[in-house]
Amino acid sequence: MKIAFHGAARAVTGSKHLIALNNGTQILLDCGLFQGMGDVTDNLNEHFGFEPSRVNYLVLSHAHIDHCGLLPRLVSEGFGGDIYCTPATKDLARILLMDSAKIQMQDAEYTNRKIKRVEDQEMPLYTDEDVTQTLSQFKTIPYEQDFTIDPNVTLCFTDAGHIVGSAVVHLKINEDGKETRITFSGDVGRYGDLLLKSPQTFPQADYIIMESTYGDSLHADLDPIEEMLLQVISHTCLDKKGKVIIPAFSVGRTQELLYALNGLELKGKLPAIPYYVDSPLSLEATEVLKDHPEVYNNGVKEVMKVDRDIFGFKGLRFIESVAESKALNSDLQPCVIISSSGMAEGGRVRHHIRNNISDRKNTILMVGYASPGSLAGRLIAGQKRVWLFGQEYDVAAEVRAIKSMSAHGDYEDLLQFLAGQDASKVKQLFLVHGEFDVQQNFAQRLAAQGFRNVEIPQYHQEFEL
Question: Which residues form the Beta-Casp domain (predicted)?
């Protein structure tokens, strides 16, 4: 049996891990889109490093685009097998993949307006028709239920606590009269998350594929998030009469922000200003989360006893049309605008940043992980001039960050996630989904916990299990 790492290898995007059994069966764990990798991004997304038609099964840990965003491309290039995930992941993947296809098609159309020769025109990575076909191949499995996907392979999901529907993947593979247990963490959430249950404990594994996004970081305590939001909003909107622009992922982070702002209203502290969520995708994702209350932690369930809509409060408005979004730029009144994407690499938030970044009254508030090369990452690093839409802008607005708002666990969370494992029985632990220097530091922490064989795979590297 072999495993090869075709994405999220010494990087935090493009998750793809291919298990090949001795009998030729191939199981792909995730099929994510590469994002924010600079000039090489397009090439990485166009070439898998393996033959899609030879893959038999796909197991999807969760619906974030860096984990599911290349599924339609995989299907269009010949993958015809089943795609296994939780019910909530399928619901989220539907809206996220349709949105991604729309972006791919619009980008190609825009580029091709300037190209006259048909043979030189760009094709989208995939289309909405590819997404429709992909969704027809989805099969859903509830948490904690063993499911035979192949005569030699049993699959089970446990809750990863990362986003709604997120799962840790557990495979039991019988080969040559021997059972091998492989666990893939997907993305591990936080213990004590604002909204979701904590990651579940899981059975002993022989091999573990482990994310490591925050493998050398500790998040601040979750408790002050409401107070930190209140401080930024009061300082910017009430004192300076400016706007707060918050780049936020449509799934997970936006809902956490709405829940925290709702909490301020329940306490009578929320400033009476307009609050806009400028992302049609966020509205759909919020509805999905409402449809799956089983993922909420006990604290949220207590709040729901006194407030049926935990994501709604006075002054909140969801913006859907482009015209409404543009109108926000000419509205000079103090307000809060939450808009995607979270790393400010695409979407409507880039327009809001462009229109507000050079005014000292305003604040750009980051609320999660941002890769160093992304616009959000460069702003956090203190860059004083940035390029947006082919023009350079001075960074005069305040740039703030609430680092404790993360759907990824820090190194203490990751170690707690592994605490139920007998390290001496884990033959190999592979670190994925992390920057290389972070992974090296986390590998040392794992060694101190008794994990003897920790590997940090390179892109396309293959290992014999």
Answer: 254-379
